[in-house]
Amino acid sequence: MNTERKIVFFDVDGTIYEMNRGTPDSTREALEKLKAQGHIPILCTGRPKASMFPEVLDLNFPGMICGAGTYIEYEGRVLRNLLLPGELLLQEVPRLEKIGCCVVLEGPEYLSCRMNEETFRLFSIVERLKKEYPERLKEMDLLTDRVSKLTVKIPDMAAFERMAPELQRAFELARYERMPYAEMMPKGISKADGIRILLEELDIPLCNTYAFGDGPNDLEMLQYVQYGTAMGNAEEVVLQTAKYRTEGIWEDGVARALERYGLI
Asked: Model's pTM, two decimal places?
């Protein structure tokens, strides 16, 4: 077991990257210093691999946990690639749409949705895929699509909450405070579960683990690792739950925390 090498898991959106603004220079420099010290940075995001854009991949992480734990890759080797059964999608997606939800199905190769203007307006990632990477976006086919998780825009939160107890039998739900959206992962799967698998693969002890995040799908991750750190711009539930806190993404939060931890 390697007791010297540390491993650090980074959420993407709101932690190391922001759409239309990119990654802070201080974060880029900190990641390079982290690797120079022999430590391992890992992307750990709710995004599926299909919506990982070049400006994030160009940060040169050796591994990634995508789809909130449904997909794991390290140095080009795929360690996990979980998919939801089509029968479950056929059962639940029409029910979500019946209460007005706009649903996007997310998988490792592509995203699928109702290809209409409302979807493009509500999901900026989907709109960018349509414009720049159309091969990664398709019309929804509930029976044949390769899907690892769902993201839904919720117009009627009360109706969604009435459905939630039944949904939670098959899915893990991550609800956002600031926006009426939720992510739906396979039951029992989270970023923390993905981290567990990667630690076993790399033979790194839990005491050498760090993580940074800002959203509800980061909660399990931040509680699981030894040094779970909420970004200063995190949602309130994350700030209240995480063991540690740093400054916001554009206040050099990642770099400052890595310095305080003695990792760079």
From this structure: 0.94
